[in-house]
Amino acid sequence: MYVTEAAIILLLLMLYLLFPRFISLKTTTFIVLGFITLFILASLTIPGYNQAFVLFTLAIVPAYLFFFLGTRTGIKWNTVVILLLILTTLNAYTAWITPVFTAELLMQTTIAYIALSYFYYMLEKERNRYEEELSVALKNKEVLLKEVHHRAKNNLQIIMGLLESQAFRTKGAACKKILISQRYRLQAMSLIHESLSYSTTYEKVDMSQYIKGIANNIQKYTH
After folding, report:
1. What is the spatial distance between Cα 126 and Cα 134, in angstroms, rounded to a whole number?
2. What are the residue ranges spanned by the domains of the chain?
3. 213 to each of 186, 188, 206, how far by Cα in Å?
4. What is the DSSP string of the chain?
5. Rg (Cα) of the chain, in Å, rounded?
6. What does the pLDDT average to over 54-62?
7. Measured at the alpha carbon of residue 201, what is the angle toward residues 198 and 186, in degrees to the nearest 5?
8. What is the CB neighbour count within 10 angstroms for residue 71?
9. What pLDDT score was predicted for residue 12?
10. For 17-48, how does the pLDDT look when each residue is reduced to its tens digit (9 = 90+)?
11. Closest by alpha carbon to 99, among 82, 83, 85, 81?
């Protein structure tokens, strides 16, 4: 039974790797989990190798069901597993098929599985809640950073516009040169700010792009 289970899982994984367009990862996960669950439940009724290990493996079933399938699908799947466990327990009482374990042990196993399923459900629910809170916090941070960068960019543009306008109105060559130089300095700061705002790390600046931007701006205002 274990050889068959391993062969089916390897076959499904190979099919997914070879034909990812036809067999999605979600479909492969459903099929693999379904085979594992059915084989474990069948091992409770059909005699096989190392039955005690099957009971241990059964305790892990709700953990990977909730982890891989999520809370909603995990609840549905675990409900089916619990119903199959109840049927297995009833079989032990009625002896339709010669039972491997006693009815008392299967009853305790079913109760323990329900308790573990609820425990793993609460853990997965809390994990999802934390992920949602982190996602909302990250989105709020991104919106705030965009707003800050937008405000800073607008303020720099306004100041540069005022300096440029004042330079055109000033008649003195020395004062005009000072105003234009200050405008260039703000333009350099604006380019740095723009490079950082569009960067993903906020720590590094593409110097090639930055120097090209400065050169292009100088060419616009000088001969």
Report:
1. 12
2. 2-135, 143-221
3. 13, 9, 11
4. -HHHHHHHHHHHHHHHHH-TTTS-HHHHHHHHHHHHHHHHHHHTTS--S-HHHHHHHHTTHHHHHHHHHHHHHHHHHHHHHHHHHHHHHHHHHHTSS--SS-HHHHHHHHHHHHHHHHHHHHHHHHHHHHHHHHHHHHHHHHHHHHHHHHHHHHHHHHHHHHHHHHHHH---HHHHHHHHHHHHHHHHHHHHHHHHHH-SSSS---HHHHHHHHHHHHHHH--
5. 33
6. 77
7. 50
8. 14
9. 61
10. 666 666 666 666 677 677 777 777 777 777 66
11. 85
The residue to which tokens 């006693």 are assigned: 102
Give the residue from 110, 107, 91, 105 showing the smallest Cα distance to 46: 91
Record the pTM.
Answer: 0.58
Residue 126 CB neighbours (<10 A) = 10
The CA distances from residue 220 to 59, 156, 164, 179, 206, in Å, are 72, 18, 13, 16, 22
* pLDDT reading at 1 higher than 60: no
pLDDT band at 51 (very low <50, low <70, confident <90, very high): low
Token pair 């593409």 is found at 206
Report which residue type is found at 58: L
Q: What's the CA gap between 154 and 116, in Å, rounded?
A: 57
Give the C-alpha separation, 92 to 205, whole Å. 71
